[in-house]
Amino acid sequence: xxxxxxxxxxxxxxxxxxxxxxxxxxSEDELVKHQDKELAEKKWPEAGELNFYNLSMKYxxxxxPAINRLNCNIKPGMKVGIIGHTGSGxxxxxxxxxxxxxxxxxxx
Length: 108
Known about the structure:
By secondary structure, the protein is α+β, with helices and mostly antiparallel strands. The chain has a domain at 37-107. Helix content is 34%, strand content 18%. The chain contains 3 helices and 3 strands. A 3-stranded antiparallel sheet has the order 2-1-3. It starts with a helix and ends with a strand.
């Protein structure tokens, strides 16, 4: 019984150590970006319009773009569906919209 308790405590301590390590990880990105001040001054979003102008996004500098020169205008109130084959950039577009990844060229 004492061996069983020993191994159980050891496993719990490993779990605690792992949780402690997760709390020590540095933040991956800034919570407030430099564009936020410009958006606040413009009182964004006023109309809810999305404009993509030559938007490109890369996961790494040396990789090909996941999104390449996207041009699109989505008017307020429009319902839009994003469809495409595997690897066509659907999830990459959502990552750019939610600011999980930054775009490398163009504007949004």
